[in-house]
Amino acid sequence: MSAADDIRARFLRALSRPLLGEELFDAVPDIVFFVKDDAGRYVVVNRTLVERLGLKSKADLIGRTAAEAFPGPLGERIARQDQAVLAEGKPVHAALELHLYPGGAEGWCLTWKEPVHDAAGRVIGVTGLSRDLHFAAGAETAGLSRALDHVRSSLDQPLRLPELAAMAGLSLFQFDARVRALYGISPGQYVTRARIELACTLLRQGGRSIGAIAQECGYADQAAFTRQFRKLVGLTPMAYRASFPSPGRSKP
């Protein structure tokens, strides 16, 4: 065990209860925070989420799924996203999507979700947050959201920027400007980052060869994947995988 691991372990052993961050996020009015169990039911929520749903207390939301808590298609979409994270163990990073605002209006937010694992590595829940973006809902943003959803769901395929811009209903210049305004990076960098984030998840999970992961993340060959991964992460894929040991993990 490294010195950093020892410091972390000693701190976690000293906690009186699990550190979930609920109280911290209660103080942030433009962020929704939650933890859900393996059935997609809320087990931890912050005050912002409770207020946006028009409920009186956190207890009114605990035990309900998103489909039960949010109205119509919005709740169904959130529930489907939760089930995908639970089933596949793949996180959601900065997804541009609609959310519910006070008074029942819809607005745009960036959403992050991560699977929660037990001591044996099994996915037992999902935790996440949604950060408000302060601009009105509109067709232009809806188109951009569709294009970025396509990126995240099609990382094993060629992703050409002119085609993505057309999918968003924007010129290539407009598409570039919108992505840079939201994420601080170019559309090409956004695609590369999404590929490497997926690769990190798959490497931590084990069960796939490095070559298979390269293909799933859209790289034509393992050498190209290794070069890009090392450039962004600072480790080769094999070294990164080795830093997350797990019983029964397949060989690279």
Walkthrough of the structure:
The protein has a domain at 19-134: PAS domain (Beta-Lactamase), CATH 3.30.450.20. It contains twelve helices and five strands. It is globular. A hairpin with a 5-residue loop joins strand 3 and strand 4 (106-117). The model is unreliable at 247-252 (pLDDT under 50). Helix content is 49%, strand content 17%. With 252 residues, the chain is of the alpha+beta class. The two termini are 23 Å apart. A five-stranded antiparallel β-sheet has the order 2-1-5-4-3.
Features:
single chain; 252 residues; alpha+beta; Beta-Lactamase; 5-stranded antiparallel β-sheet; 12 helices; 5 strands
What is the spatial order of strands in the main beta sheet?
Answer: 2-1-5-4-3
Q: Could you give a short account of the major beta sheet? A: 5 strands, antiparallel
CATH architecture of one domain: 2-Layer Sandwich
CATH superfamily of one domain: PAS domain
Task: Give the beta-strand count.
Answer: 5
What percent of the residues sit in helical stretches (DSSP H or I)? 40-55%
Label the structural class: alpha+beta
By CATH reckoning, the class of one domain would read: Alpha Beta
User: What portion of the residues fall into strands of 2 or more residues?
Assistant: 15-25%
| Euclidean distance between termini CA atoms | 23 Å
Helices, by number, come to: 12
Low-confidence stretches: 247-252
Q: Might you state the CATH topology name of one domain?
A: Beta-Lactamase
Order of helices and strands: HHEEHHHEEEHHHHHHH
Oligomer: single chain
